[in-house]
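Final report, Chapter 2: Outcomes

The project's central promise was a pipeline that accepts a single protein chain and returns its three-dimensional structure in a standardized token representation, suitable for archiving and comparison. That pipeline is now operational. To close this chapter, we reproduce one record exactly as it appears in the project archive, with the input sequence first and the structure output second.
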Amino acid sequence: MQKGIKVTTAGLWAAVPALLLLFGSCRTEESRQARSIRQAQKTQAELEKLLTGGDFGEDSRYALVKQIAQAMMAARDYRTLVIFLTDWVEKNPDDKYNAYWLLMTANAYLENDARPVARYYLERIIRNYPDLMVQGQSVHFLCLQNLIRISETSENRITYFNQLISQFPNNVNITEIYYRLALEYENEGEWDQALKTFALFLNRADAQSIQIQGRPNAYASAKQLIDFSNSSKDWTFASLAELKAAVTTAINKYDWRALDKYKSKVNFFAMSWRQDESDENAQNSFSMHSYMRGNKIHCSDELDPSSTPTEAYFRTWGWSNRYVNVWYLYFRKVNFPSDPSVHGRWEWAGIYFGEKL
């Protein structure tokens, strides 16, 4: 006798009512959906017939078109929606709500992730149609928000950000927009415009307190850039080798004046490895004189192995008998494309106290 699950005739007949109930509920659900679709189609057809056959005022006609469009959106019938709205705009060029109908068209394409087509309609609205307030919202403002979100190039986002600033200064946080616009100018290599826009950002009253998503140190980074731009930059060296050699010679000669001269005059920091460069007490301006006097200072022959093509760490020791004895001098390649004569040179940008973690 074959082993397995035994199904008796009585058991099978006992299961029939449950199966019939299941199939019946599925058919009921399908019939409900079918009835719902047929009813929606019937209602839509009646509305369209009413729309084309009636002589309505502008507001009544707007309500009807919107009701038809929303019914199509609710049914996710985006293809029919696009055909209906674009056909309406073409046949009714004087409808003052055409910008809104095209915005709905763009949204339908966005729902289907057809961004290039959506962008075409959004830009068409801004170029060819006057702005329109619908339910308390500006159509042009909504278009610009969408364009910024879906745009794939900094060049386009620069255009849209500038339009937001000039046309809707009260609808957006101008401080954040200035910062993001400056970043887009950087991406495009428009360095002068980037610096001007970062300066506009820093001059805003809330620049120091604003929280910008993805940019936790927005104020500090912008300030460092502007401060560097406004400085003499005369402490930089043509190469890392020249900088290391000059610092080594000054340490060996206990020439604190030379070391003070080599230190960056902007954004120089001195901190422990656990601190962040943006910490208030990390930004230090001090003379090397008091730390060299009476101490026997040494420095490594080579840079630390963790150094990279843009950053270098130089281990030194003997700075203090009472406090932290080991200092790592931090050298950095200058990243300032706005001034080709400085960009790519090297600077002594800071000090890390203690052994590397």
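Archive annotation: DSSP finds 13 helices and seven strands in the chain.
This record, like all others produced under the grant, will remain available to the consortium after the project formally closes.
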